[in-house]
Amino acid sequence: MKLTKEIVGGALFLVLSVAVWFLIPSQIEVITDSRINAQFVPKVITLTLMAFSAINLVRAILSQRNVSMNSGSTKKMDILRVLILFVTFVVYSLLLEFIGFEIATVLAGGGILAIIGIKKWHYYAISTVFVVLVGFIFRTFFYVQLP
């Protein structure tokens, strides 16, 4: 089996989402006994990431059976790009505590767009505006204190 960027990406994000799933109870304090609490949204997002990563991994493995032996192999640069994206997410999660949600997310979003080769400036602007808007909505209307 050849390691393609889809296999590496699916496996890395599956491992990351499983790790985050087990870290949520120790990192997010729950004050109420209700089912919808501070851990609810992070668990939903993590479960969604876990499911899509598993689907992507299975699809990538199954698609290798259908590909003929004459097709080109995945470039090492593609696998390196997936690993750099994974490291970007890890660094992002570490920076959240130190520089806050908005700054860390804008930097990570811009970095990810640059890594995947996006050159249109308005994608960076949309990403930045969306992050600031989400931060504002969560603080103002939901009274959620972001890091």
Automatic annotation (TrEMBL):
Domain DUF1468 spans what residues?
8-147
Assigned keywords, A-Z: Membrane, Transmembrane, Transmembrane helix
InterPro entries assigned: DUF1468 (IPR009936)
Q: What is this protein called?
A: DUF1468 domain-containing protein
Membrane-traversing stretches: 7-24, 44-62, 83-116, 122-144
Q: Which intervals of the chain form a coiled coil?
A: none
Among the Pfam families in the record, one is: TctB
